[in-house]
Write a structure and sequence with these properties.
Blueprint: H1 2-28, H2 34-48, H3 56-60, E1 64-65, H4 67-76, H5 81-88, E2 89-91, E3 97-99, H6 121-125, H7 138-144, H8 149-161
Antiparallel strand pairs: 1-3, 2-3
The structure holds iron/sulfur cluster (2 copies).
One iron/sulfur cluster (SF4) binds near residues 63, 119 and 123.
Length: about 160
C-alpha cells in the first residue's frame, strides 16, 4: 500500500488533464443515474480497500471541524470547548477550524483513530465519493485523487463506466 501512496501524486498529476476534462463534461450534463452509479462504485472500492493499511488522509490533510464537531469531541474529552480549540485547533485562511498540525494528533501508530466514534463529520464522509450530486465536488475530487488511493480508483472506474 505504501508504494501506491508514494506514487499517487505522480499518477494523479499524469491523469489531471483527463480528469479535469471529464469533470467539466460531467458538471455540464450529469447522467440521471449518477447518484446510483457513485454509490455502487464507492461500495465496490471500499469493499476491497482497507483504510487501516493507508490512513493517508489522516496523515497528510486534516479535516475541517464544524461547531457541532467541536461540541461533540470536547464533550468526549470532558474539556471545555475553548480548551479543546486552544489545545488542538487553529483557524485557517477560510476561517474554518482545522488541526494545528498533520499527521492528525488523534491518529495512532496502528492507523486507528482514537476518537473514531466521535470523529469530525468530514472524516466520516471522506473521500465523499458516495455523496449525492457528486459532480458538485469535482474540484475537491481532483485534489483528493492525489491523496486517496480509493478516490483515485473510483474516478478511473467512473471514466470507464460513464460515457459523456
Ligand atoms: S479514505 Fe482514502 S486516503 Fe483515507 S485511509 Fe481510506 S483509502 Fe486512505
Ligand atoms: S480525527 Fe481520526 S479520522 Fe479524522 S483525521 Fe484524525 S485520525 Fe483521521
Amino acid at each position: 500500500m505504501q508504494d501506491i501512496i508514494n506514487n499517487l501524486p505522480k499518477l494523479a498529476k499524469d491523469k489531471h488533464k483527463e480528469n479535469k476534462s471529464f469533470f467539466t463534461k460531467l458538471k455540464k450534463k450529469p447522467p440521471k443515474q449518477l447518484d446510483y452509479v457513485m454509490q455502487e462504485l464507492h461500495e465496490e472500492e471500499f469493499n476491497r480497500t482497507d483504510c487501516l493499511e493507508c490512513a493517508n488522509c489522516c496523515k497528510t490533510t486534516g479535516p475541517l471541524f464544524t461547531d457541532k464537531d467541536v461540541v461533540r469531541i470536547a464533550k468526549h474529552f470532558r474539556m471545555k470547548q475553548q480548551q479543546f480549540i486552544d489545545t488542538y485547533l487553529r483557524v485557517d485562511e477560510e476561517n474554518d477550524y482545522v488541526l494545528q498540525s498533520v499527521p492528525c494528533t488523534f491518529l495512532g501508530a496502528d492507523n486507528y483513530c482514537s476518537i473514531y466514534d466521535v470523529r469530525p463529520k468530514a472524516c466520516s464522509e471522506f473521500p465523499h465519493t458516495d455523496r449525492k450530486k457528486f459532480q458538485q465536488i469535482s474540484n475537491l475530487t481532483l485534489k483528493n485523487v492525489a491523496i486517496c488511493p480509493a478516490a483515485f480508483n473510483i474516478v478511473e472506474e467512473m471514466k470507464k463506466r460513464i460515457k459523456l
